[in-house]
Amino acid sequence: MTSRPETEQETAQSAVCAIEEKTEAKAGATRKVFVRTYGCQMNVYDSERMTDVLAPEGYQATDDLEDADLVILNTCHIREKAAEKVYSELGRIRKVKEQRAKSGKDMMVGVAGCVAQAEGEEISRRAPIVDLVVGPQSYHQLPSLLNRARQGAKVVETEFDIDAKFDHLSERAERPVQKRAPAAFLTVQEGCDKFCTFCVVPYTRGAEVSRPVAQIVTEAERMASSGVREVTLLGQNVNAYHGQGPDGATWGLGRLLRRLSEIDGLDRLRYTTSHPRDMDDDLIEAHRDLKSLMPYLHLPVQSGSDKILKSMNRRHTRDDYFRLIDRIRGAVPDIALSGDFIVGFPGETDRDFEDTMDLIRRVGYGSAFSFKYSQRPGTPGATMDDQVPEAVKSARLAELQALVSEQQKAFNASRLGMHCDVLLEKKGRNAGQLVGKSPWLQPVQLDAPENLVGTIQAVEIVQIGSNSLFGRLIEGQDETDFSGAIPAPAAQAG
Ligand code: SAH
Ligand code: SF4
Ligand code: F3S
């Protein structure tokens, strides 16, 4: 949500073990798995599915590293610092493993995710405590890979077979319903064919693959019946979704969202991350038509300079982006826009950077993520001339983040006095408080009894904090009375 003071975007630091899991432990064989998730939301989803796959093997999730028979680091490779963090975490885990060994207890260590895919065997060479390296497309094979590792082999599995992954993972989901958090992720598309010149994702996640509509609907229905009220559809290019529909035709994201909006109990839909090139009319119309599609859109542009956009291979100009924003705001005037920005891409001059600042001023964001360009080995950007000095990148990042922060404050302040629906997700910091999300993805804190967790309530926004809003329950008001917020007559039709 927020622009960060540093270059890092850590959307998923929390260990997945925090998710309440009821496992079907084999009699007498309860083992503990600790999963730490780095990187994007897709890793959060994958971590949850890994614990699903391990549950029938007798594994229960734990958030206590020292108690773990199996540790899995689900890693991110997007920037240099992300991978380095994994190696320093492995150093800490080695000490815990040695400690456990003293009391005769074993600990297996697995590295999953994008670093696993990119570095493969190199990981166990650099960190010999690692027993298993598994790429993002092979999680369905975890039980058999663990068996091999238990027999003493150093296992490295980095095949690309996304279809097999989803076929198998969706079977696993047919286990009895579990209690889930009220807001959850669902991957509908994985991989990327765009090859932006700064980015490792096409190499770590492979080619773009969309899951069939029926498989997604089944999974979403199961989530709704286990208490999920809000689903965020995930994909590296989620709006490039082109899955096979039950009618044999290829469905786009707009049509998929329409179908999902019919599921009982799924009151809120979101999706991320979108590419400007793939934002078609049907999807924009879905925003206009669907009450359950929340008025928030993460639409990264990366730069406001045509020269840099071209060199990044983004395949659109700044004017294309402005026209697109106009179309989106034509459909949903009050939508909260978010984006990603990279400063200091090779060849970026003061003038190019000023174009980015100008774009931000003209668009007006509700929030944004921003990063210093990080050279990724194997990507074209890494070997381009005119790499930008670190100090220049830092200065530009600070300037950009100050502007975004100002815009974010103004957007948040514009909610003061509004009535809107809030999905209450968990207990707040203080006793008697709950925290939820506004339609625009802002955290909202309010006084409310704990039994309201998992419900959507009508709330008046009474105060604005630096990163969150403060609200008050509107007594006797049913959530379904609001489509988005009032007063905001043009906000969300339907
Ligand atoms: N698929 C999404 C982005 C995925 S990566 C899209 O197309 O927009 C998330 C963000 O990380 C990117 O939007 C970009 O801003 C940032 N990023 C990716 N590679 C980077 C690099 N080499 N250096 C700095 N930031 C990077
Ligand atoms: Fe990376 Fe570009 Fe693909 Fe996004 S569209 S995942 S930034 S290559
Ligand atoms: Fe990171 Fe891989 Fe996601 S590199 S951002 S975990 S797709």
From TrEMBL:
Keywords: 4Fe-4S, Cytoplasm, Iron, Iron-sulfur, Metal-binding, S-adenosyl-L-methionine, Transferase, tRNA processing. SMART domains: Elp3. The keyword tRNA processing applies. Its cofactor is [4Fe-4S] cluster. InterPro entries: Elp3/MiaA/NifB-like_rSAM, Methylthiotransferase, Methylthiotransferase_CS, Methylthiotransferase_N, Methylthiotransferase_N_sf, MiaB_methiolase, rSAM, rSAM_horseshoe. Residues 31-151 form the MTTase N-terminal domain. The keyword Metal-binding applies. Binds 2 [4Fe-4S] clusters. One cluster is coordinated with 3 cysteines and an exchangeable S-adenosyl-L-methionine. It is found in: Cytoplasm. It is an enzyme of class 2 (transferase). Residues 178-410 form the Radical SAM core domain. It catalyses: N(6)-dimethylallyladenosine(37) in tRNA + (sulfur carrier)-SH + AH2 + 2 S-adenosyl-L-methionine = 2-methylsulfanyl-N(6)-dimethylallyladenosine(37) in tRNA + (sulfur carrier)-H + 5'-deoxyadenosine + L-methionine + A + S-adenosyl-L-homocysteine + 2 H(+). Its main location: cytoplasm. PANTHER family: CDK5 REGULATORY SUBUNIT-ASSOCIATED PROTEIN 1, MITOCHONDRIAL TRNA METHYLTHIOTRANSFERASE CDK5RAP1. Monomer. Catalyzes the methylthiolation of N6-(dimethylallyl)adenosine (i(6)A), leading to the formation of 2-methylthio-N6-(dimethylallyl)adenosine (ms(2)i(6)A) at position 37 in tRNAs that read codons beginning with uridine. This is tRNA-2-methylthio-N(6)-dimethylallyladenosine synthase. The lineage of its organism: Bacteria, Pseudomonadati, Pseudomonadota, Alphaproteobacteria, Hyphomicrobiales.
